[in-house]
Amino acid sequence: MTGKLRIVHCFRSPVGGIFRHVRDLAEAQVAAGHAVGIVCDSTTGGDYEERLFADMQHLLALGIWRTPMQRHIGPGDIAAAWRSYRIIKELKPDVLHGHGAKGGVYARVFGSLLRVSRYRVARLYSPHGGSLHYDEATATGKFFFGLERWMERLTDHLLFVSGYEQRTFQRKIGLPTIPHSLVYNGLRATEFDPVLPDENAADFLYIGMMRDLKGPDLFIAALALVENRLGRTVSAVMVGSGDDLPRYHEQIRQAGLAARVQFLDPMPARKAFALARFIVVPSRAEAMPYIVLEALAAGMPMIATAVGGIPEIFDTGSSALVHPLASELAGKMGDALLDPEAYCKRMPSLAAMKARFGADVMAAQIETAYYSALQGHARSKDLSKQSVVSRVS
Q1: What residues does 239 pair with on adjacent strands?
Q2: Which residue from 56, 162, 230, 344 has the highest number of Cβ atoms inside 10 Å of its Cβ?
Q3: Glycosyl transferase family domain spans which residues (predicted)?
Q4: Which secondary-structure segment (H or E) carries 43?
Q5: CA–CA separation, 275 and 257 (whole Å)
Q6: Cβ(149)–Cβ(122) below 8 Å
């Protein structure tokens, strides 16, 4: 099966890695001649995200549709789901691709409702971590993992962004009973151009969502430990937004670091890279974080936690990776400052990065999954018709 497709990406929060993934994927799909649209939440994101939407508006033949979607399950989901379903129904997609937990539920449920109306649509789901972050020993985790297992019957194809995510799914939910693929996030060719630090660059950079899952609190605690270890001050820039931002301001104040740590609003990653000599990724949980790929492709030395898919980006047993503990982060940060040249040699080679993480490779593999899902749906419809004819005979 070939031909141009009508593709709708559905997700909740237009910030962070999921939004970046959808933007890159949509851009590549438009270049391939497909008609693409986006349905997402209207209550998250700020001026930076608004500019990103404005930049891509002219590319998307099916448009950008934003409507309120709450983060957690609750009564408001009924109204939000109805609004989203009406939008998607009008767009008449061939492919509904859900990203993250909420987007995954919406895409698969709405795609199934469209099928009840005899409408051909492929239903794909990329977890991007999502509900997989829950602890399987808790009641909440068991509920969401049970829901994910049940939702497989509404799913044509699962797309994992890292081997870690795939293994976590198997461990917490079980071996997928439907077609599934591992497709790494990809970068544009221009993102492999080096970024040099500004003349007045800080020592360290944190860029990302301001929430504990991503480890800003660990980064701040590590800064204080580095100062104690080296017996001198260090400087840092923290770029991002989120509900927990005021708490990190207070943590900085209590640690006596306010004069040496600058907070900035979200900005393009490559612009932020020039603000410091080293980047720190202190996450407690990840799937396949774009920020790690982007920073390494730009030639930026990194201290990162060995969580999620991050070890898959680095060479096996890389000494640049640590557990998500302030003390271990501080140790590597100190090493980087004491001997920058030696520390830079711990990073994966640019050639290896280019060979594995290209946006064109990512888009081609996902397009293959789309066509495969549509072919599978066509075969199932043919079998259903044959069954009806057989019963009538």
Answers
A1: 207, 264
A2: 162
A3: 191-342
A4: none
A5: 18
A6: no
Residues 315, 352: Cα–Cα separation, whole Å: 10
The pLDDT, as a whole number, for residue 179 is 97
- Amino acid in the structure at residue 13: S
pLDDT at 389 (0 to 100): 44
- Are 220 and 295 in a shared domain? yes
- Residue 361 burial (CB count, 10 A): 15
How far is 324 from 306, CA to CA, in rounded Å? Answer: 8
> For residue range 192-239, what is the model confidence (pLDDT) as tens digits?
999 999 999 999 999 999 999 999 999 999 999 999 999 999 999 999
**Residues 364 and 349 grouped into a single domain:** no
Q: At what angle do helices 100-116 and 76-91 cross, to 10 degrees?
A: 60
Look at the chain and count its residues.
Answer: 393
Number of domains in the chain: 2
If phi > 0 it is left, if psi is from -120 to 50 it is alpha, else beta; for residue 33 that is left
Cα gap 212→201, rounded to integer Å: 26
The C-alpha atoms of residue 186 and residue 297 are separated, in whole angstroms, by 11
Q: How far, CA to CA in Å, does 357 sit from each of 21, 187, 288, 297, 340?
A: 12, 6, 11, 9, 26
Which residues, listed in sequence order, are joined to residue 64 by a DSSP beta bridge? 38
Which amino acid, residue 370? Answer: Y
Residues 153 and 212 in one domain: no
- Residue 82 buriedness (CB in 10 A; 0-12 / 13-18 / 19+): exposed
Neighbours of 303 (CB within 10 A): 26
Interacting residues of 196 by C-beta distance below 8 A, sequence separation 6+: 274
Q: Within this chain, do residues 31 and 153 fall inside the same structural domain, yes or no?
A: yes
Q: How far is CA 12 from CA 70, 82, 86, 319, 356, in A?
A: 8, 14, 16, 36, 28
Q: Which residue has the tokens 């996450």?
A: 283
User: What is residue 181's three-state secondary structure?
Assistant: strand
Rounded Cα distance, 59 and 36, in Å: 8
Shortest CA distance to 40 belongs to which of 28, 55, 24, 23? Answer: 23
